[in-house]
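Issue 218. Parser rejects a valid record. Input:
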Amino acid sequence: MENVLRPLIVVGGSVLLTLLIGWATDRLLRKADDRHSETPLWGLLRRGRIPYMLVLCAAMLRGAYDEARVLEGHSAGIGQTLTLVLIGATAWLVIRIAAAVVETTYTRYARAHHDAARVRRVRTQVTLITRVVTAVVGVMAAAAMLLTFPAMRAAGASLLASAGILGIVAGVAAQSTLSNMFAGLQIAFGDMVRIGDTVVVDGEWGTVEEITLTFLTVRTWDERRITMPVSYFTSNPFENWSRGTPQMTGIVYWHVDHTAPVELMRRQLRDILRECPAWDGRDYGLVVTDTTPNTMQVRALVTAKDADDIWTVRVTVREQMIRWLTDNHPYALPRVNTADATLAPGFRRDGDRRNGHHSDGVTVGGPHEPPRTGRG
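Output the parser choked on:
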């Protein structure tokens, strides 16, 4: 009877005690979260209840397993398994706690500061710090698990003897990976590019969506994702439209006829911008910038508070100006002239060239003869 009750009491008591402690801890965290709604710390800590209960259960079972006297022939393997579970659950719990603390710090900072650029910079740093902590804790947990095996401890002593050679080989093999990792840290703390920045990379316009230690993801305007190594941003030039102030100036071009009413177009541009909510009211202008034999190029200058609004202003101005010209001044639109060319004074269209005479006494040769002069 004792052989049945003993393992039942040890195992069942450990599991029951774990559930009881986990439930009580969760209730305390829930009350703290309701009482301190200004901080998300307690709510975030509740996400770690599963690894917390695993740590408790594994620790109690590991300590009381010898008293259970069950499967004594496999005690070494069961003890090893419980140790591995304890190490893994502890690492999982540490990662959850660190993530909760970092996220709470970022939330408080974001509430206290209203500068969007600074908040995005801190968000980028917080994200990379969380990833670094996760990687470090994961590596340490894996190393601790390996060291629980006697064969691994013996191998570790021999590996230390050749650590110099292995370090050189690993450094050469992981050169690109290490450069990307250092580039990721440089981006995070050098404030080169942040999550949420509007950038232009290789002619593609988009928003930085994710930054890790090794790669960066840009979401384009048409919902595509461009993934590239972070080392690209430390070794190649790129446009960051969110750097400094987010205010932007945009231009719109039209090709119109030479008879287009430029002054009326300036007034119409002013009226269009006044009705456009995306225009920030800072500046506008319209000038003729170029001419061709058939058209002239008109450029409008508009402003907006950020990259998204400047796009809206540009397409609105372009569309409404063309519609206004079509409805009110259709002659100002580009067209191909098919009328006869106006000749210079003194020329007659038929007689002079057919007779080979010019009004000033110059005789024009035939189609295969060079011009010659003479008196008529």
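Fixed in the parser; the record now loads. The two ends are 144 Å apart (CA to CA).
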